[in-house]
User: Fold this.
Amino acid sequence: MSGGALPIAVRELTKRYGQATVLDGVDIDVASGEFLTLLGPSGSGKTTLLMILAGFTRPDAGSLRFGAQEMVRTPPHRRNLGVVFQSYALFPHMDVAGNVGFPLSLRGVSVDERRRRVRTALELVRLDDFGSRRIDQLSGGQRQRVALARAIVFEPGVLLMDEPLSALDKKLREQMQIELRRLHARLGMTVIYVTHDQREALTLSDRIAVIDHGRIQQIDTPRRLYERPGSHFVADFIGDSTFLPVSVIDGVARWQDRVLALADPPAMDGKFLLVIRPEKLAIVGVGAAGGGNRIDAVVEDIVYQGDSLRIDLRLADGAVITLNEPARAARIAALPARGAAVGLVMDPADTLLVPAP
Ligand code: ADP
Assistant:
């Protein structure tokens, strides 16, 4: 199947409910065949934006184009979209093949062609032999696959998904994430995906749009978003962080009286926060030689978590920062005891500042 993926351009999209502005001048460009995720806390406007894309909600202002065509006034069934929502919305009285073939019946596709396409769609979601099963004979993961097959069976240029995996348990969810990646690589349609789960967003997406209070805060690749967040909000929302106050004067960054070496220093002086990610710090002995930015600390707690150890460290000013160590035997044997004074070292390439809010 190849659906003729379409680029999407969202301009100045605004939606109000009464006094509340739920979407506030949203601009997004999605390239043809790109997998873009809308990520944000609950109530940030993700579903509203997706509903506008799908045509179920009318915006108060702004424009929405799929390819060259303006869509704001186009009804949902004319948008040629595949849609998968949180609740499966399958027809319980039809079998799997009936559900998957439904969009084709609506489009007047012949019976033979329908049978062929349903088979292909079911193969793609690995339900080859499930065509004659009833929906209530399927597990949650299988139902979600049926919903996905139904959304792609007519080869839409755009696929919209709203938290499609949130009802599944962790293991199945992670497995389905990898399957969705494969499916997207194979079919190449443009995808807009909504989640509040940052790990899911990082796993699936070509790019992520972080949204808060109806505004896009940053759009970037997963790696740039994690490693170069542009604001305190994005750094705090994606990944675990501790923040320490830093001032930059005449281009020199200082935390307390320590000068910080930065691979990517800010262009302007001012107040900033040092973003400390748990995996970017190394523990060294007090007074050990070596480069990088050093902070003195005392080990407060060590928690074994199976794949890693979480180590809480207290700084002289009382701030607590958290570090992760992979749980390899040699590392565990070499760890300092609770109460020990240690040095923490961070590579300048991992030493990141964001503007203080
Ligand atoms: P998210 O998907 O990020 O959780 P939503 O888009 O569902 O956020 O909601 C954004 C905001 O808009 C919320 O404050 C929500 O209460 C409000 N909202 C959504 N739909 C309606 C509606 N039909 N009427 C009034 N308020 C709404």
